[in-house]
## 1
Amino acid sequence: TQQRADDEMQEQLEIHDDLVKSVYQHSVSTLNLVSEFIAIKGSHLSDEISRELTLANVNRVESLALLEQCLYYQNEVLLADLNKYTNIISSRLLKQATGGQESISTINQVAAQPLPIEQASPLAIAIYELLENAIRHAFEGAVGANYIQISFGPASANNADYQLTIQDNGVGIPPNIDPMSAQTPGLAVVAAMNERLGGELSVTTGTGTIVSITFPRTLT
């Protein structure tokens, strides 16, 4: 009967939801264990630079755990809501920051368009790295209203590519520093994520900094 078919469908949906929740909890637990392991190893390092780098890696792992809150299944495909992730990560980073961060506004213009996890994961890492770097360094000595704008959506009218752009009105990258050098490890991570997406990375600096990743909608 139709009622029996509806009941079976509802039962299957509930089983599916339970499975998704179980996978989510397992993934978060695993990431938290990795984060704890890195933190323990880092606490035994003797020099300050190594400890700082270890803490940065702990924060990166924790940011991936936060992405797990933004995942869901649709038509048997695992998707991510990067608009929600951007809100979560920007709020978290601003709360963790020290010194005048209450004067920084974040403008979330990430399209509310779900992305397959294969694209969303490297993008989430790039978003975290660029936001963390801007909040820590972009506004040192800056005055007035400060902002970071995060945009994501189709790069052109034909929708062939996506584009992520993070822009701030801060002090810019010092002219004696190459953005892709070892002096800027955050951007090196972004460059690696761009390569994973098969995209093109652009860094423009002057009055503020603009970083863009343009990549094809379909991974090859």
Note: The helical segments are 2-43, 48-67, 82-96, 117-138, 185-197.
## 2
Amino acid sequence: MFYLIGLGLNENGYSKEASDAIMESDLIYVDVYTVDFPYSIKKLESQFKKKKFISAKREFVESFEILENAEEKNVALLVYGSPLSATTHISLIEEAKQKGIEFKIIHGASILDAVAETGLHLYKFGKITSMPKWQKNFMPESFMDVARENHSIKAHTLILCDIGLSFKEALEQLETSALNRGIVLGKIIVCQSMGTKNQKIFFGEISKLKKARGIENPFCLIIPSELHFTEKEVLEKF
């Protein structure tokens, strides 16, 4: 059996179903490449006595090597948040189907649920996009194209920020991309470590957000579109 398990948003956010599956598993891997965990994986591991958690990097998961033992043993892949947010995980399930490996998906809360705490109506979000850390010869701005497309239909834009991208860098990349496309940004929203004790929500102009201190990974950015009065009432309190 192959278990694909969503852990939720904090070290106690997994379900009873997830806990039972972990205890039944012979091999337990933790996806460590799609997000920065806002808590210690060792602390999570300590909740499951006599179970060892193995860090799974991108190459290992994408090669489907994780499925090699699933025909004979119970193998689990633990994913922060929701287990099917990354396309790699969907590909794993498809590979398991092709190989005739039994599988079970155990869902968990994700950032897609938690952003509702901003007061924004979830049904008013458009396409979700991601912002990678820019390199010398790799400075994609496609996230801003998605934001512009969403704005054209009065939809909010959720931008997921990749591992290794600092808050300062994210704001700089957002500003530069908007400037290159002639887009004027108003107030934006920053969500940090949602669902944890370190959760923070900020709402303001980029110039003011640059002065905010202590914003840590994981965080995401939201570019709001036209606001309903109830959304505005909640946002203005942050």
Note: Residues 167-180 form the longest helix (14 residues).
## 3
Amino acid sequence: MIDTHCHIYKEYYDDIESIIKKMDNNIIIVSGTNLKNNKEVLELCNKYDNVYGTLGIHPEDIDEINEETLNFIEDHINDNKI
């Protein structure tokens, strides 16, 4: 099974490890929406074999866009699991 779009962030879940472990033999694609959780997406991709990610900006977070946000996405858009 592949979960093609989820938001597994520290702000929503106390025990991310157990959530990811339940999907151990499956693939999870975590979608970033701002700089903070784009960084978290990258951390999860690097930590867990079954986690892949997308980096982006959600329309609700459009006011937070700055050069750092765009540079982060540009710097990591070609990472192996993004």
Note: The chain has three helices and three strands.
## 4
Amino acid sequence: MNAKTLETNSAYAKFDVDGDGVERATEALCTTLAPKGSRIEVHYERIWIADDYSVYFSTANDDGFDIEDWTAPTYPTTEVNQHGGEISIYTNDGGKIIGLRVIFDDILIYKQNNIFKIFGNYPGQYTKVQIFSANGGISDRSIVASNEGSFFLNRDNIYLYNGTQVQPISFKVKSTIGNINLAYALLSCGVVFNSKYILAIPSGSSTKNNLIIEYDIYNKTFILKNGFEVSSFLIFDNKLLFVNDDGKVYQYEMNTTSRESYWLSGKTDLNSPESTKETEYIYFYGKGGKAKVSLITENKTVSKEITLTSFLTPYRTVLKNKGRILQLKIENVSTEGIYSNFTIVKPNIMLDTDLD
């Protein structure tokens, strides 16, 4: 089939498909203008742009990608893999695209309630597959790509996409996630730095990101830090910086000596809500400076400050409390404005249970 172009303009080309001088309805989008969108990525020598409901990819050829050519012909061609194109990402819930990332050599499209992955290296291979459906909106600025995969915040959890599946990772701080101000959750922002996923969220009634969740990727532990207001993060010159609404830039300190920090467990009734638990001792291994350990029930909070040795040592400390619901809190201690820095692992509580 030898078609010749009869008419062209900035948007379309009409073809005489049969070579008889008669225009047919077959048209091809032949604009060299990039589509409008709010997110952009580079993947296998193509530029990808996303708007609310579609992703677009630029032309690629023997000379590499061409950022000035977004030709997406519907006319049959043997050069389909050298052209650009569009992939529609519509869903029944009407959710919009809020994120576009390259993870493990695949394009991931994050919608408000879903995640899609585009398999393939060129248009003839592209396949769209849904890999996640969320219970609530995903926070765009919490999406961070790293060597381990993609971290992101949902209204009920922090998740990790590891290249195969999406898994929740924040059960240990479930109560903290549950206390996010959902009306301002989209302000949440994250970064991966020094093998930690650092996420700033609006907690309680705050309309700004006033709490930081610091997740150690390899040890799978959490530290909570307050006293911050974070609008966005930036890694520059091997330093982690952040800004807040006052327009100033600050350096984020990875240690805890300049900030009040604490770890708070989830609340538990030990699967026995009808029973009263009476605690006596807490056991753990620890090292570093002074630590404050608190056991919280629905009735009261009991606390004790413990000075730790410089090497990892087992400890047994009296910590008596009584209630149906238990929660453990471990925090640093301030001495003349300098907060302690310590390590505590494997905390265990000795208790008795009485059925009513």
Note: The first strand starts at residue 4 and ends at 8.
